[in-house]
Amino acid sequence: xxxxxxxxxxxxxxxxxxxxxxxxxxxxxxxxxxxxxxxxxxxxxxxxxxxxxxxxxxxxxxxxxxxxxxxxxxxxxxxxxxxxxxxxxxxxxxxxxxxxxxxxxxxxxxxxxxxxxxxxxxxxxxxxxxxxxxxxxxxxx
Length: 141
Ligand code: DQA
Known about the structure:
Elements: E1 2-7, H1 19-22, H2 27-40, E2 44-49, H3 53-62, E3 69-73, H4 82-91, E4 95-99, E5 121-124, H5 129-139
1,3,4-trihydroxy-5-OXO-cyclohexanecarboxylic acid (DQA) binds next to loops.
């Protein structure tokens, strides 16, 4: 089973960026953990990070017919991007949405997620572990 893991803007700044909210571990460490968990679950994984909405739309489109599942943390685009929602709808690949923080207990504007409209499951507030849960969800099928 092939899973594409997509991380959106500013997640490459993990460790530096608001460590009280997102933790002290850096992005490389997140990617290492994801690869290890995927290995344990016998999943083939590809990792992609971008700060650009259009690049995220492009990678979702290119996943069509190639990947069996998507794990996405759209970061700030969660709350704004109809384009990412539409791309996920277009390819119809089962998607799990992940957020490191609990978007429901922060500012009002973070409570709405476009991606939740298409995601099979949304995991938030579990830090890095949320990605493991998302991979486990895909592995169950
Ligand atoms: C985030 C939550 C978003 O509101 C925020 O813009 C992010 C990260 C999270 O992982 O908790 O960049 O998706």
